[in-house]
Amino acid sequence: MKKYYISTLVMIVLFTSSCVQPTRNINITLKLHLKGMKDVQRVGVKGNDKPLSWDQGLPMNPIIKDSLYTVTYTTKTGYNFTEIKFTVDDKAELKGQPNRRLDFPNTNRVVYEATFDNPAAKAN
Amino acid sequence: MITLIKKLTKPLLLPHWYQDLLLAIPRLVCGYLLTADFGSAKFGLPWSPKDNNLHLFEVAFWFPHDVAAYGGIFKMFPVFFAWMGAFSEAVGGIFLLAGYQTRLFSTLILLTMLVAMFMQQWQNGLWNMLPAMGFAWVALYTSVIGSGRFGIDHLVTK
Lengths: 124, 158
Description:
Chain A has one helix at about 1-15; strands at about 25-35, 45, 60, 60-65, 70-75, 80-90, 90, 100-105, 110-115, 120-124. By secondary structure, chain A is mainly beta.
């Protein structure tokens, strides 16, 4: 009887172990345009999947100060999308509006170009 | 064994049918919400969101990581507990909605919600504990009385 319980437990553990959604690496490049902003100190991006989080923004690097910023990172996910919001000087964009959504159903590389606080964006 | 299963399945009936109906409402709402929303977002069912890319009975990739963060036994068997928790919500919701094997699945849901309340949301404050608490209260009484008159349990045991 004891053997039966142990083997049942082992089978349950093995069965459930094999039922985790597989993940893949997605390489994401973000480009953010700022319009009419001066003396910007920090630009970042927050989001769902690591290395992003909704607590701490991932810093973006200036290509043209106060105008164009970029960051490239790799995220490991099982989903076909992720959600993000940009921040400037720790202030998040699109207040009260939905997050930006990046879809990647058939690709492992996404280039997403956007303007701060403007939901219209160009994804490649 | 059959007697035990029958005992576990047979619901307690209240004196009047409308009392059973009243108690069936939270059970139906919670069952629906668990399987259509909370559970199917992290456990693969035919109605899981397509972009979540979940195959049938697959648990979302992030859930075992969250479960492992609870520490202790959850850290030792994160996949098992994540799978069981997601299964309890997604599949348990269907059974709760149908009122079939209500006590068994209510107990699974209750245990899952207790973990959600005390291991996941405790440090986030009372407000964040409310959804799990709501499901837990319903699962608590359905684990005692079963489905009542308005469930498959009643039909198969009367």
